[in-house]
Amino acid sequence: MTLLDSWKFYDPKGPISGDRSIPGIGIPGTGSDFQRFITYLGIPVIDMKLESAPLYNYMLYHTMYEIPWLLDNFLDQNCTAMMAVGQLWLEIGRDIADSIIIPFNLHDYGLVLSDFIDRMDQQLEHIGIPKAIGTKAYRVILNNLRGALTRFQIVANVIQEITQSVNTGHESISMKQAEMLNNRMQHVERAFIAEQGIYPERAEFRHLIFTTNNIHNDYGNLLFGGILDPALQWYNASITEI
Asked: Which residues cross the membrane (predicted)?
């Protein structure tokens, strides 16, 4: 059994609806040590680790007993888990280094954005936002958002095809062209950064998409905090008034 097989077995629900080939990949919430890179600077992050299935962490996590002896005798006696993660990190690093164009899959990014918007729509429907602002107005706003997503996906798919062709050796480009494409890849996330923050009370969070909402669990994955935060605040206030 490979590391990927184990990953799919314990966490089979991937980030793209209907695609069972990709295992579960979580969203860096405000409880993550790495989320500031993406939510403030627009730099993609990854927090790669093996979890203690079926629990998120082992019982002595963040206690005074979490010492090397615990690792050597209970958690990873043969260092197989650490070695597996290390090998995966090395392979990811090798793939990035050997790729002419940064292998950032914009096609999948567009699919995930579509799924995020669907989830946000469901949440807003659930708390009654369409009724509060008018169903027609709500649909116009959401259709505009989906239209922007469609335009993004069209361009993203074109760039993804070029990236795939170049990195597999089916198409050649100049160093100047490669530099231009890589520069665009590095600025994809930064295109979603709001300079002043998503709103004054959360100015330290600037990513319009990957900022989780401030109402639910910080380790959750309800995104679009700039939209869901005020919506949920309104909902909670309306319940309190009733």
From this structure: none
